[in-house]
Amino acid sequence: MSSTLLDPTGEVQAAQRTWLDRPQTLEGLTIGILDISKVKGDIFLDQIDELLQQQGLKTKRYIKPTFTRPAPLELKQKIVRECDVVIEGLAD
Amino acid sequence: MDWPDGIIAVVKQDCPTCVLVEPVLQQLAGGDMPLIVYVQDGASFPTDVTQVCDDSSLEYSFHLSIETVPTLIKIESGREVERVIGWVKDEWCELVGDDTLGKALPAFRPGCGSLSVAPGMTEKLELRYGNISFSSRRIDIAELEDDSEACFDRGWSDGLPVVAPTEERVYRMLRGCSRDSTEVLGHMPPDLVSCTVEKVAINAVLAGCKPEYFPVVLATVEAALDPAFGLHGLLATTFFSGPMVIVNGPIRESIGMNWKGNALGQGNRANATIGRALQLIVRNVGGGRPGGVDQATLGNPGKYTFCFAEDESTPWTTLAEQRGFSRDQSAVTVISADGVQPFVDQISREPEGLVRSMAASLRVVNNIKSAGAPDAIFVVSPEHGRVFDLAGWSKEKTIAALQLELQIPGEELVRGAGGIPPGMPDSVKGKTLGKFRPEGLRLVRAGGNAGLFSAIIPGWPAIGEMGCDPVTKEVLL
Q1: Of chain A residues 9-48, which have a CB less than 8 A from chain B?
Q2: Does B160 map to a domain?
Q3: How confident is the model at residue A18 (pLDDT cuts 50, 70, 90)?
Q4: Which residue among A1, A2, A34, B414 has its CA within the 20 to 30 Å range from the CA of B371?
């Protein structure tokens, strides 16, 4: 006999999400650099920042209070307001 | 349901009292008052009665709330006005208005249980004929598909077999609490999905919980969803940790939890399935799965399940008492936990020496050079606990003595000290650092009577506002 089960999942298997359009060039854009507070992330991002600035590009730095929690909503909104693209350092 | 005016009798042939009253039913069938006889186990009984209705589906018995057969009911203007349960001659005569009924029969015979209230049948009938609805998606399993394999195939399992969440099982689980199935307990990370009582019930079925464990599972989920617990980071971390559940209060005994021998091990259904339910909810409702958001380097076996009860028969205050609850309240505490590190001391018989011995073993949590990072639980066994109890040492005094022993000179912690490369910066030289934050060392009592062994259970190094704090919630029935 067939049986009926109830779905234990969150039922939110999202439809495929598409990438945002990639910019053709970084020129004239504001590049956010987000440090998630992982150990040595700042060393890596300092070098990225320096390389971008050498190319005459505009960067802005941000830092999450802790890597253990999602970024506060205010920080996410601030980055959205102030930047066109974001680079995030994810690992130690 | 609309009922025709007259008399309704509900019987089953398998009931000796129903067989006894067969001549009475025949007499009623020949009378003036309209009669319907619902028969639960085949319509060939009673004989010589034309107004017999087959109720082998038990639909009418369910709607009439029959618990015993025979039951005689009088209907006037479509409503029940009188009911007699079993054979009570006087009452049958009065209900029908005929004192000649069953003259040859004894005055009283009790009835038998109605098939509609047989074990497991109530839930089936409520689902079939009652007003029960679920919000969750229904998934039909094909005839040739094995239920257990179907759950594996859909990714609902932690790697061990799960109990298929049929509607009946989920309904029974929901009846284990008095809460509305649509109530939202919070948003389950990482997908931040609304976690309803119903979703918790489905996963409690998967985990193998009994309905009487369900209030503990609900309190556990509520505790884990408290922002202070930081569940998102805990489930995502590369570190070993996962949530551990400690249960206090009368519910421990009511549902048969284990705080004695092998309390941290296998073999007790409540311990095993309550902890497992939480992990399955993280996996299924929140979407936190190994290799996905769960990026653990090694994990630990406690991520299948890690739940035990505290031994409350000792002079020490319990974990729940320390956290503001009374002994007659049942409470659940969730704490981040890695594996178990054994502590062995078969010599110390005085608390001062035992504390030094325990402290030295705690020094190596994570790394002998780490200070101020992880919290830890010390599960103190009865034989070690007795050393403190006999000397009149309270839990609070013992923790204070341990913390004192765990103040470490910075010189021992700096990088390179002892020929060990990791460590603190040179700036800590001349200072004293605590191995644990002031509230970061917790003692609980559990274990079997034999064995001078206790257990150190360290937690996730991310603590406090930057990570994970223990959370305690009351178990509400």
Answers
A1: 9-12
A2: no
A3: low
A4: A34
